[in-house]
Amino acid sequence: MYFARHTNNYALLINKDLVINQILFRLMVLVMLFGSPVTHAVDVITNISADTASITTTQLRRIYSMRQVKWANGVPITIFVLSSTNTTHQKFCKETLRLFPYQLDRIWNKLTFSGMGVAPTIVSSEKELIKAVKSTTGAIGYIENIDEVSDVNLLKIDE
Amino acid sequence: MLTCLKLMNKLNCKLLCWLGLITFNSLAQDNHSAEPFKIHGFVAQGVIDVDGSNFVNNDGEISLELTEIGLNTSYKFADDFRFAAQAVYLNGGNRYNEGLRVDYFLMDWNAYSSEKWQANLFVGRIKNTHWLHSSTRDIPFARPSIILPQVVYFDGFRDIAVGGDGAALKLTYNNDKYGEFDFNFSRSKSSINSRDAEVILSKLAQGNIEHNLDSQASVYWRPVFSQWKFGLTLLDSEFNYDGETLDFFVDGNFVFQFYTFNAVYEGEKWGFTSELLQTRFLTEGFYTPQFNQDNLGQGGSFQTTYKVNQKLTLIGRYEKFYSDKGDKNGYRLEERNFGMVPNYFGFQNDTMIGLSYNFADNVRVNAEYHWMAGAARLNPIVLPNPTVNNKEKWNMWAVQLMYWF
After folding, report:
1. How is chain B split among helix, strand and coil, in percent rounded to 5?
2. Ordered DSSP codes for A31-79
3. Which end of chain B is more exposed for a tag (fewer CB within 10 A), N or C?
């Protein structure tokens, strides 16, 4: 009897916790829907020839560290970047690639000065980068101000 | 008169390099497009002062023999084929020969490419990409310090170790669960001219030294999203010395094997690098027809860097090396040579602190101070020079300004 009463109380407590958790979860969903969206601060764009709608973070790391040089459809990848001190480049490295800009510099310098590869092409502004991605087959780049772009693929980044 | 002509030749060589670099720099400014033709280069000039050894010069004076100029090109002439070449001018005093050399001149064939795998074959004069800094040892802005750890990157072997004529295979594999893997294999040989031989063997060597085709392999692994990277490298090489009739040395054979393990941590502020090595150095003949010596040397370096901000980085490193693990303090070496070669020629340790400061995206100054003990990594390696290197402990500082494009 004693055991049964205590078990019922315990069950009530668990139910209360569940209700609170459900309320908290719904609140969180509301915040996520109507609050600041959890998206990548920097967007990735490609030339239309790349023929891809989404990309994973690991695949992006592979491309930017020159470990994948062709798209799935066989088109060679051409990479455009901003200088390593540019804030968009730094954001892209840290938040999207989860790499520090100096790590990419090391990889690119090693390839360039050992003859084992070619480093990405550095452009001076986001406008120039968009123009280069639009006009170069297989090109990939990143931008912060997405409103200004058309005629390129905007990639969805999957974790 | 002869000295004057030599000096003029040196100046002309430097001047030509500078002119070439300025011309190509202006060409490279227009090179920020996805054109298949690329040009890159660098120039660095420093001041170095060594007190107590012949590492750079024999008189111990402050020296400007710290010049590095390089120019490279890459031309992609088909989707899977590319040509690449690099020439460098180096002046490091006694560390290696002063002058121009072709570092690499190769054809790159991207034989296979998928999302996970890549295979490249390089043929021609290839650069050694096996060790952590072997491919960037002369690239001032791409190496951690002006003087690299001599335990692995011994400057006396620079022209032999930097690469050679042959072929290399590079395989990369990416796994979403286990991380990134690199497999490298190469076979090549370096041509050693009389001036290179003089640096390694001393002026007394009148004969020819030949490098046989060597084999090198390396494996690197970076776990998924990790700041760590680990590597293992192997080298097996052989050299033959063909003595002259009137020569201080006789015919000989050298076998040099070199194994390293390395670990790298790349954090936002802190960086850590370590390379551990074991070398086998077998000498048959050379000193006398019956001479036979088989030494196992060991060593390692531990380096830490701290990024104070985007411009300033501090560096500290300790390295230790002994050429015979059965004689770490060199006493047996001294005994074998009847006291003519002091024990400190059996080891070399270095404690270093330094900094690098970026004035702009492509302008940097590096500065460092070394506290050295021992003389096992001083040229000429096969004939120690205790007359000049008469101190166990010696010091060195260097400052180098560099620009690249």
Report:
1. 15, 55, 30
2. HHHHSS----SSEEEE-GGG--SEEEHHHHHHHHTTS--B-TTSPBPEE
3. N
Helix (H, G, I), strand (E, B) or coil at B286: coil
Cβ B350 vs Cβ B155: under 8 Å: no
Token pair, residue B118, equals 């890549």
Pick from B78, B175, B168: nearest CA to B117: B175
User: Which phi and psi angles does B160 have, rounded to 5°?
Assistant: -85, -40
Name the nearest CA neighbour of B259 among B278, B284, B240, B283: B278
Q: What span, in angstroms and rounded, lies between the C-alpha atoms of B194 and B202?
A: 10
Rounded to two decimals, the ipTM of the complex is 0.86
Q: What gap in Å lies between CA B9 and CA B100, rounded to an integer? A: 12
Distance CA B269, CA B306 (A): 5
Of B115, B139, B224, the CB nearest to A59: B115
Q: How many helices (H) and strands (E) does chain B have?
A: 4, 17
A52 close contact with B: CB closer than 8 A: no
Are the beta carbons of A67 and B174 closer than 8 angstroms? yes
What's residue B160's pLDDT? Answer: 86
Q: Which residue of B has its CA nearest to A129?
A: B33
Which residues of chain B does A136 touch, with a Cβ-Cβ cutoff of 8 Å?
34
Q: Give how far the C-alpha of residue B390 lies from the chain's centroid of Cα atoms, to the nearest Å.
A: 26
* pTM (predicted TM-score): 0.85
Whether the pLDDT of residue B9 is over 70: the answer is no
Q: Would you give per-residue pLDDT tens digits along chain A (159 residues)?
A: 444 445 455 444 445 555 555 655 555 544 444 444 445 579 999 999 998 899 999 999 999 999 999 999 999 999 999 999 899 999 999 999 999 999 999 999 999 999 999 999 999 999 999 999 999 999 999 999 777 678 899 999 987
CB-based contact (8 Å) between A112 and chain B?
Answer: yes
| b/e map B367-392, b = 16+ CB within 10 Å | bbebebebbbbbbbbbbbbeebbebb
Give residue for tokens 């121009």. Answer: B100
Beta bridge partners of B366: B356, B400
A43-158 is a CATH 3.40.190.10 domain: yes
With pLDDT > 90 as the criterion, what percentage of chain B qualifies?
Answer: 79
A109:B113 CB<8 A:
no
Provide the chain A residues 53-82 that lie in CB contact (below 8 A) with chain B.
Answer: 56, 58-59, 62, 65, 67-70, 72, 76, 78, 80
Q: What is the helix (H) or strand (E) element at residue B347, kind and residue range?
A: strand B347-360
The token pair that represents B344 in the structure block: 């400190």
Residues 6+ positions from B150 with CB-CB distance below 8 Å: B319, B321, B348, B350, B377
- Looking at the complex, report in whole angstroms how far the Cα of residue B207 sits from the nearest Cα belonging to chain A: 32
Q: What angle do CA B31, B37, B43 make, to 5 degrees?
A: 60
- In chain B, the domains with their CATH numbers are 2-28+38-404 (2.40.160.10)
Q: Does pLDDT of B2 surpass 70?
A: no
- Would you list the domain boundaries of chain A? 1-37, 43-158
Q: With a cut of 50, say whether residue B241 has pLDDT above it.
A: yes
Residues of B in contact with A121 (CB under 8 A): 32-34
Neighbours of A53 (CB within 10 A): 10
B84–A contact, CB cutoff 8 A:
yes
Q: Which amino acid is at A55?
A: I
